[in-house]
Amino acid sequence: MAKPKLAVWKFASCDGCQLTLLDCEDELLDIAGAIDIAHFLEATSKIEGGPYDVSLVEGSVTTAHDAERIKAIRANSKVLITIGACATAGGIQSLRNFADVTAFTSQVYAHPEYISTLRTSAPISEHVKVDFELRGCPVSKHQLIELIAATLAGRKPHVPRVSQCVECKLSGTVCVMVSKGEPCLGPVTQAGCGNLCPSHGRGCYGCFGPKENPNPAALSMKLKEHGMIGRQVRDFYRSFNAGAPDFAEESSSHE
Predict the structure, then answer these.
(1) What is the CA radius of gyration of the chain?
(2) Which one has a higher pLDDT value, 188 or 226?
(3) What would the pLDDT profile of 93-140 be if each residue is shown by its tens digit?
(4) 158 within domain boundaries
(5) How many other CB atoms are found less than 10 A from the CB of residue 51?
(6) Same structural domain, 143 and 170
(7) Which of 29, 68, 131, 134 has its CA 20 to 30 A from that of 124?
(8) What is the DSSP letter of 60?
(9) Of 42, 67, 37, nearest in space to 54 by CA
(10) Count of C-beta atoms within a 10 Å radius of residue 41
(11) Using CA of residue 219, residue 223, residue 225, residue 226, what is the dihedral sign?
């Protein structure tokens, strides 16, 4: 019986989420034994044609060429899953969505006429149908393994949609906003990092994007109570998931 074929694709990104897959080490060996890794240029130069049972896509769409390429990948994939902040929300490069890209290129490049780019950095879901999104910058190793295992088994992946605050409470981490007055995006951010920043006394930076049904307006009021002014609040939401609709809308309200 033929093994399921897996393909991993890169668009505009830093490759961090693909490296997370490679960092799975022992787990990756088990995965490799259960599937046929048909296309994964970060790991091997071997390329097999589709159709693919599962395609993992890292990175955002920033050029017309990539907009066409993702359509071809979607047509050749039974299941298409986006991994990481770039693929699910446009990534840090979506900061350009709030300004004039033409102005940027004219300042940075000696010959901006050679630059061919879209006005925005968009998540994959704005161009094709996506079957599942795995958040994070980078994605969680454990969530990635769960995602692949669940997909191969034909079940829904168990990925929590609760806030980072829940993860802090479960681990016994004292709230940094309450105890230290540290600005923190935890109340509106999806859990998944393993409580990394708050456990070291720092506020959450929102690496996993907005949680399910967030309330950023309420959080912004608290941030101002802790001394942040309008522009600081705006910029606090404009990080790895600046292009996520909930964060983008709230940040723009503080212009």
Answers:
(1) 19
(2) 188
(3) 999 999 999 888 898 899 999 989 999 999 999 999 999 999 999 999
(4) no
(5) 12
(6) no
(7) 29
(8) B
(9) 37
(10) 13
(11) positive
